[in-house]
Amino acid sequence: MNQELEYLVQLQEIDLRIREQELAQEQYPSAVTELEQAIAKAKNALDHASKKLQKSESEKKTFEDQIEQVKSQLDKSQERLNSIKTNREYDAVHAEIEAQKHMLATAETKSKNFLDDLTRMQANVDKCAAEFEQIKGENEPKIADLKEKIGSIDSKIAAISKERDVIIPKISKQYLRSYDLIHKKRKNGKAISYVATRTCGICYKVLEPQLINEIKRGLKMILCQNCGSILIWEDRSKGNT
Ligand SMILES: [Zn+2]
Fold first, then answer.
1. Listed residue (65, 67, 77) closest to 105, CA to CA
2. What's the pLDDT score for residue 112?
3. What's the 190 CA to ligand 1 centre distance in angstroms?
4. Nearest-angstrom CA–CA distance, 11 and 124
5. Rounded to the nearest whole angstrom, what is the distance from the C-alpha of residue 230 to the centroid of ligand 1?
6. CB 115 within 8 A of CB 61
7. For a surface tag, which of 28, 160, 218, 240 has the fewest beta carbons within 10 Å of its beta carbon?
8. Distance (Å, whole) CA 23 – CA 19
9. How far does residue 207's CA lie from ligand 1's centre (Å)?
10. From the CA of 21, how far away is ligand 1's center (Å)?
């Protein structure tokens, strides 16, 4: 194959490697954010569950203090019964005692419900903690890996660009112009179309047999009349020149 076409093939390969790094540069930061957000979400769920549990525990404590108060009031009321002089007083204290006993009975049921709630909340805290640890354990190494990659992209691109600088002077302006025109126009940067059978490898236009022969010979640059790609016989891409 024409030496310059050979260099164009190499140039394309270099540019695709640069493109790959640039894509990574675009995509890695959002991948890092996504992984970090997943950790933060799990942490939030755990914090929320823990706060709920704490709140319930302190409510239970207040409730138990109230029970203790009622109990001591009940003791006092019962003591007063012994020193009562009138019937009216007796009825009043008796009513007080009945009310206090009733309060204690209700409180006991409520206390049992409190315990059930606390057990359930503790189980939820444990579940959230396990999930948080798992996500953190999975995502943190990935984040570190991506950050390391992000940090090395610039130097990788610089290294590949040096290869590009070596190739460029070896290619004529006319060839470079044709290449650049298509390379810059295409999102994927592909300017070379490898022909394997009878069609353009990029736009799949069927090519004339005579054109195929010329592409196979590879003596000059041939552009696809339909899409403008530089047509290269596929075997050339594998180095079988
Ligand atoms: Zn084409």
1. 67
2. 85
3. 11
4. 58
5. 8
6. no
7. 240
8. 6
9. 9
10. 26
Give the per-residue pLDDT at 240: 47
Strand ranges inside 167-214, DSSP E: 192-195
Burial of 105 (0-12, 13-18, 19+ CB in 10 A): exposed
From the list 224, 239, 154, 230, the residue with the least C-alpha distance to 189 is: 230
Token digits for 160?
């590949």
- The ranges of the chain with pLDDT < 70 are 236-241
Ligand 1 centre to CA of 188 (Å) is 15
Phi, psi of 205 (to 5 degrees): -70, 140
What was the pLDDT predicted at 74?
Answer: 92
Contacts of residue 191, Cβ cutoff 8 Å, sequence gap at least 6:
12, 178, 179, 180, 181, 182, 183, 229, 230
In the reported structure, the alpha carbon of residue 212 is separated from the centroid of ligand 1 by a whole-number distance in angstroms of: 13
Q: How far is the CA of 226 from the centre of ligand 1 (A)?
A: 5
Distance 192 CA to ligand 1 centre (A): 9
Domains and CATH numbers, the chain: 22-170 (1.10.287.1490), 173-237 (no CATH)
